[in-house]
Amino acid sequence: MRPTGRITTAALGAALLLGCVTAPAVSDPAHAKRVLVFSKTAGFRHDSIPEGITAVRQLGAANGFTVDATEDAGAFTGKNLSRYDAVVFMSTTGDVLDAAQQEAFEGYIRHGGGYVGVHAAADTEYDWAFYGGLAGAWFQNHPAIQPATVNVEDRAHPATAHLGRTWERTDEWYNYRSNPRERAHVLASLDEASYSGGAMAGDHPIAWCQEYQGGRAFYTGGGHTKESYTDPAFRAHLLGGLRYAIGDVRADCRPENGYSRLFDGTSASLDGWKQAGPGSFTLSADGTLTSTGGMGLLWYAGRSFGSYSLKLDWKTAGDDNSGVFVGFPPSDDPWSAVDNGYEIQIDATDVPEKTTGSVYGFKSADLKKRDRALNPPGEWNTYEIRVQGERLRIWLNGVKINDFTNTDPARSLTDGHIGLQNHGAGDQVSFRDVRIKELPGKGH
Predict the structure, then answer these.
(1) Cβ count near 258 (within 10 Å)
(2) What would the pLDDT profile of 57-66 be if each residue is shown by its tens digit?
(3) What is the pLDDT of residues 364-377, one digit of tens each?
(4) Best CA proximity match to 71, nearest among 58, 90, 55
(5) What pLDDT was estimated at residue 442?
(6) Whether 327 contacts 402, CB under 8 Å
(7) By CB atoms within 10 Å of each CB, which of 44, 73, 394, 398 scores lowest?
């Protein structure tokens, strides 16, 4: 709610910025990021592997990380793996590591290492349960190479933030032996009606991420064809997965199920919303809401909520101010939300109790956790705001940063509306994908 800010709307698309630096186990700003691409095959060998390795090398050169490539499983020792922030399994197939090498890789992941699986990485190490959990699912079969529609489910993760709500592309589309949705966070899925041979009963994840036993994992089912690695959209997809795996950018990779969208990026989904006060939000063709004009509040008037998990994605361009309001009564006066509800702040430049992750004016976030979790201006962030009873908890990019209980008799979180602030003419903040899941009533 501070009075001034700076104007600029961050350009949408694949703006691939370099963020903070994190080693597999310890954050170290002096540590140069390093990636190992592993492409050993003991089964079918994809002729696109050289193009995949070249693409990762080029992405590394353009984005500040070093890339080594090998087909020697002897590289999987504890000492050698500790040099790398992520290991890419580039269309590996079959049993490629012995027991000692598997043990070394397990230790690497458990000490904070990153994993990127590309395409046939899911056709690898079927007798190694740890690897199956890390990859998320094993390959079952595939139909012929053909075009398909990819539904982009998460548009904040760096692997998919540059995409629209759907992505048309041609590849070899794997069916998997199990659905990873319950244990991993699905970033994109296939529309099985858009192609022939889909065999996952209409719920067909094709790219996902997860935190796994201390490490970070990203998998994409794309990448069979040589052409994938010269396609700008796929290269940006691969780079986003790499940036997540090496700890260059943060994302909420917890499983996400049971949410319904209050705003899905379409104009029709704004029917339940009302604008209070001056200013407004502009809806772009890619489904992003951006604030403009004077102070006001876009609030969901369709109904109030009493116990829920609210998730949404947001981005600033710099020193821009905004917030998410919860627990306020219906009103066409935006100050009613200020006086009767609670604001979860977005601006990262104010005093602790009025900065990102704070319950504005009431309780600061855990600043150390907040700073580690926060992506810089120009990058998307994800909030989870969980309200149960009078308890309000906040997660930023999957990290819990605040836990607040209302004791003000003049306010109550047990029933109220939610809203997105357009703070003022000098502040422009973007929002995407507002979704909610109702929860049991008592905080726990």
Answers:
(1) 11
(2) 999 999 999 9
(3) 999 999 999 999 99
(4) 90
(5) 56
(6) no
(7) 44
